Amino acid sequence: MTDLYQSQRAMRALRRTAMQRGVVAILDVGTSKIACLVLRFDGGDPAADSDGVGPIAGHAGFRVIGAATTRSRGVRFGEISVMNETERAIRTAVQAAQKMANVRVDHVVACFSGAEPRSYGLAGEWDLQDSVVSEQDVARVLAACDVPPLGEGREVLHAHPVNFALDHRTGLGDPRGQIGNRLACDMHLLSVDASVIQNLLYCIKRCDLELAGIASSSYVAAISSLVEDEQELGAACIDMGGGSTGISIFMKKHMIFADAVRMGGDHVTSDISKGLQVPMAVAERIKTKHGGVHATGMDDREMIEMGGDSGDWEKDRRQVSRTELIGIMRPRVEEILEEVRARLDVAGFDTLPSQQIVLTGGACQIPGLDGLASRILGARVRMGRPLRVQGLPQAATGPAFSSAVGLCLFAAHPQDEWWDFDIPAERYPARSLKRAFRWFKDNW
Length: 444
Fold this sequence. Notes:
Dna Ligase, domain 1
């Protein structure tokens, strides 16, 4: 197994140490931007007061004292493609945030998109030795979950217990201290491409920083964008980034499915660049200022000045109608949404009691996108903005910062995961899983 799996417990310990020292950095490594927030904690570990194997608690206990963003370089589809460029961009963002906060940061909690996430639903049962459920019993029932073969080069990123059943009572968030005879557990496991994580770990190490936690962007974006009722009743969060679009489904305040589509806002920009034969920077400006997905009669008459610096005056002074621009943008946006719809259908989203969909991420700000999305996805759609956290600058309150704000909440109040429990040695899963679980024996 790679370093990630072996060091999950060590990362949790580092996070607690950093919180006790009072300062930790948040790093959102995206395709279009790298955002860094510096958090100051009031002292202690707020997670110690949370309700154990349960949902993430409120967001008290920290404030943002530094924030910076820089253009992302060397990242494609949410994955590092040029190490030196990404290292330079991360250093720039972290140094600017440190300067604003006037404090040095050693520990970071990072999130990333892409890496081809796959979701698995696992189940396990355990007969209790004593009638009262103890911490050890929870660890044993988690160990009893049969893990499917993840495939070569795959790594587990998240492993959340999402439901416990004690005898005939189900829907328990935390069974510890309750009385019964047989404990059952349902767990959601998210695996990703190991090489993507190893590249990110190595890049952060090269920046002279220590990693105190790692999370999937689609997971943390949903934490900050979905309101409590949506997390409880069932909702999907579509995090539309620059290079990839993350999908996560929440139910009973737990993530039960996650996936990613390898398309995002940068692909729309690229289409404009090729269709209008302008540089990417000009295409991005036109998309941001004049973009949309619904053409009206007015748009035929609205002419957009192309601008440019090619040196050819005639070419640089060209004009196109807004209708033509929308005609280039709409097919790609529809393709992204159709792909998202296919992933939601595979997950069985249409069987959930509530079918709310929340769009967030920088690329969701195209005018008219929510109306188009509700037609294609066939459900209620709203635009999601991140929760307001103390000290967050006004510039970082838009949908593009959902992942960064969600990562703050994840850092302050991480949900209990598999590696937070001491898995007993005699309960290793049988058959071919012994090899996969050898790391328990080696490292725990």
